[in-house]
Specification:
Blueprint (H helix, E strand, L loop, with lengths): L1 H44 L10 E5 L7 H11 L6 E5 L1 H11 L4 H9 L3 H15 L2 E4 L3 E3 L18 E7 L10 E2 L3 E4 L4 H21 L8 H4 L2 H4 L2 H16 L5 H4 L6 E3 L2 E4 L1 H4 L8 H4 L7 E3 L14
Parallel strand pairs: 1-2, 1-3, 5-9
Antiparallel strand pairs: 3-7, 4-10, 5-6, 5-7, 8-9
Length: 314
């Protein structure tokens, strides 16, 4: 009798132990499967995390190439920052880059290649390059003012900044005026959703206008698309950043959030720079404000090589 009870006792506990072992095995197997799935998904679709602004400087050359004057301006940014790699894009290399890097977005490729106005392509190119690779975009007529690029973002914001934008019109203008970002100097980590918002908004405007006029992209004109500043330029970037950032922060941004700045201000993951930083010629300050104002980082020389009747160089 005792032997039978002892056997039953052992059988019961053996069964419990087997169940526990089986349960643990199933959990481990499930976790292994989940890990493998996660690795597969990450490799296929996940957006990589970038620690800082990549040390890349982007320029776009026109048909004339690099003039002596433009070389002096670009050298003022490149030579004092030897750890940064400067890349000069041409019309041909830009087209090839977009074909290759955005093959999964035929709407981007087809529309970019079909655009007939050079300045439209130059504007969109900067957004595409910075979204895909990150780094810094400079127009050819921008010179740097001696402060190392690594010091442009305050230390307390470096870990949380994925896009750096500066105001062209922000301070010292009388009455009511439209605050507008400049686009001759932009810094970004790759995959900024704010830049993709800008790209998608441009494509939507292009689709709307071509449908309205019953034309192809190749047949669009500056008269049809309207002011370049609105279509692909500074106001487009301004509206896109506000739209995207508003969605990210789940609130409507107001002027006091980002405007009338004397020091850089981080909102979400966008660092807004005072007008003095990137556009000192179009912003003015009182002596009291000058005492606490962030320094000038670049000068835009307004060479405006694209400003002719067909949006390109003469």
């Amino acid at each position: 009798m005792l032997a039978r009870l002892h056997f039953r006792f052992l059988s019961y506990h053996s069964l419990v132990a087997l169940c526990v072992i089986f349960f643990i095995y199933q959990i481990c197997t499930l976790r292994s499967v989940q890990d493998n799935i996660a690795v597969h998904i990450q490799g296929a679709t996940a957006i990589p995390k970038y620690e800082g602004i990549p040390k890349l400087i982007w320029y776009k050359l026109g048909p004339r190439g690099l003039s002596d004057e433009a070389r002096n301006w670009t050298d003022s940014c490149i030579k004092p920052n030897p750890e940064y790699e400067a890349r000069f894009m041409t019309d041909e290399s830009s087209d090839e880059y977009v074909r290759k890097k955005f093959a999964s977005r035929p709407d981007i490729v087809d529309n970019f290649l079909a655009l007939p106005v050079p300045i439209w392509k130059a504007d969109i190119l900067r957004y595409l390059l910075l979204w895909d690779q990150g780094g810094i975009w400079f127009d050819l007529d921008v010179s740097c003012e001696g402060i190392p690029i690594d010091d442009w973002i305050p230390a307390e914001y470096k870990g949380n900044t994925s896009l750096v934008v500066g105001w062209e019109f922000d301070h010292g203008w009388p009455g009511n005026y439209l605050h507008q970002m400049e686009i001759w100097a932009i810094m970004a980590k790759p995959r900024s959703p704010h830049l993709m918002q800008c790209i998608n908004d441009i494509l939507q405007e292009l689709a709307d206008k071509t449908a309205e006029h019953g034309i192809t992209v190749e047949n669009t004109t500056m008269d049809i698309m309207g002011d370049t500043v609105e279509f692909t330029g500074p106001r487009r970037l301004t509206s896109a950043v506000y739209k995207s950032l508003g969605g990210m922060t789940n609130r409507n941004l107001v002027g006091s959030d980002t405007e009338e700045l004397l020091q850089p201000k981080l909102v979400g993951d966008v660092l807004f720079m005072p007008g003095r930083s990137f556009a000192p010629m179009t912003n003015t300050y009182s002596p009291e404000e000058e005492a606490i104002l962030s320094p000038q980082l670049v000068t835009h020389h307004y060479a405006g090589t694209w400003k002719n009747s067909h949006g390109g160089e003469d």
